[in-house]
Design goal:
With about 290 residues, the protein is an alpha+beta fold. The chain is about 75% helix and about 10% strand. Strands 2-3-1-4 form a 4-stranded antiparallel β-sheet. About 25% of the residues are buried.
Length: about 290
């Protein structure tokens, strides 16, 4: 309790320095929050496409049912395949009618004989899509193979880029935060040099002198984490309706409350470590 009072007194005596430290911490945790949202969201999008039938093989009209069933069985036994689905001509017609139910002219022009039967194959890993597509193309009963290689590859590359950029930004902002807090704490220690000397003369231990400064750094970190997390979460909630409509069919929204709370908990722990570490470095440097 005595350390808390001293810490609060130090903060009130230098409000502009406190605001500067909180601001840099806020920016740091704002970047962390946005990076986490982007990384988790992009990972869910990739997982969504991975769970869907991404390779579709359209059979030739002369293909026999026995041959089509045999090809499906071959993929069912494969360890790289998550699931398979056979779509007959009649089922393809039902799907077509459902998709074009508001256009009677298109419905009259199409029959089951025109539409090809198909086999949809879902891979466990995106990396296996190409080999699955090559196997399907090699079948004499397959006329055409379609799969979302470019889309998934782009998403994977984008996720990797987001991860690298995010880690780089967090590292830079973290170093800047440490530097700012070390500098601010060092200035405060210099301003209280005479008081510290008096405390030492009357028998105060080094830790008794250090604790208020360390708690001050933790305060800056915790407040910055709360503000950064709050701004990022509020902006995501505000943009959720637009993002949900843009990502139609991809089950990302609504984001569970537990995710926000878990992110806040993690950021608070990180803020305590970052604030305490920065202040500890400062007191080690200036309180020799």
């Amino acid at each position: 309790m005595k350390y808390t009072k001293t810490t609060w007194k130090n903060i009130r005596r230098s409000p502009y320095q406190a605001i500067a430290a909180i601001l840099i911490m806020t920016l740091t945790f704002l970047v962390i929050s946005y990076f986490t949202f982007l990384l988790v969201g992009s990972s869910k999008i990739v997982n969504y496409f991975e769970s869907k039938p991404q390779v579709t093989a359209f059979f030739k009209d002369e293909a026999k049912q026995q041959d089509m069933d045999s090809l499906r069985s071959q993929f069912d036994r494969s360890t790289s395949v998550a699931s398979t689905k056979f779509v007959s001509k009649d089922e393809a017609l039902k799907i077509y009618k459902e998709q074009n139910k508001n256009d009677p002219l298109l419905l009259d022009l199409v029959s089951a004989d025109i539409l090809p039967a198909s086999l949809e194959v879902s891979a466990k890993n995106v990396e296996d899509l190409q080999s699955i597509a090559d196997t399907l193309k090699a079948s004499p009963n397959v006329q055409e193979v379609v799969f979302q290689k470019d889309v998934v590859s782009t998403l994977i590359n984008w996720t990797g880029a987001v991860r690298k950029i995010g880690i780089g930004l967090i590292a830079i902002m973290g170093l800047v935060s440490v530097f700012i807090i070390v500098t601010i704490t060092g200035i405060k220690i210099s301003q209280k040099k005479e008081d510290i000397e008096i405390m030492r003369l009357i028998g105060a231990t080094n830790w008794h002198i250090r604790w208020p400064f360390i708690l001050e750094g933790i305060f800056y970190g915790v407040v910055g984490a709360f503000i950064g997390w709050g701004i990022a979460s509020a902006s995501l909630l505000y943009a959720s309706p637009f993002l949900a409509s843009f990502l139609q069919g991809i089950p990302i929204f609504p984001i569970p409350v537990g995710f926000y709370l878990a992110l806040l908990t993690g950021e608070l722990l990180l803020s305590i470590i970052l604030g305490a570490f920065s202040s500890f470095i400062a007191v080690l440097r200036y309180l020799k």
